Amino acid sequence: AKLAIFVSGGGSNMKALHAAILDGRLNAEIAAVVSDKPSCGGVQYAQAHGIKTLTYPIPKSNDFPGLTASEMVDELKNGLGIDFVILAGYLKLIPSELVKAFPRAMLNIHPGLLPGFGGKGMYGERVHKAVIASGARWSGPTIHFVDEEFDTGPILAQGIVPVKPTDTPKKLAARVLAQEHALFPHAVSALVDGRISWREDGIPILWSDS
Ligand code: GRF
Fold it and tell me: Where is the Formyl transferase N-terminal domain (predicted)?
């Protein structure tokens, strides 16, 4: 299967997926890394590993500057033959046309337990700060299908880590991120291999969970 991975930051989740591909745990190919931040760590890693990159340097827009959403769809689907889109630390909203072009084929990872601690502006340390402030004893990553809003699509998988009394957002972020790296390759592998069933109410179930 051909993946397009969208990144805006360091790209450690993308690296975890790439590592899983290289050692045979994930039967896929990263056909493109797409970013709104041309010099972010994720793009640099892709360039260093000969992975095609598509970058859109203008910030503060939810569109892809220089390219309409339908041109983006055309490039991903017809130009590159992308089967699945994986958002790995991509911070912009995905235009609805692009969401619709990949039904049940676009995943996002969020560093908190949705449906709490998500939504517009809830990313990075803000999530962990809110979790600590809430007094919650557990946190963890959520992997979900992407719909047209931030962090609201159907949940596919979650991991849990303890929230410790002495945690800072930074410490909690590191603990959750380690769990993200373990969980994401499993979830993407289930997606590309078709090991997901859909409940009648639209909830996806991993075969390994049932
Ligand atoms: C991760 O915590 C992910 O859950 C969130 O952004 C962070 C990206 O980290 N959406 P990285 O770029 O994969 O290192």
Answer: 2-188
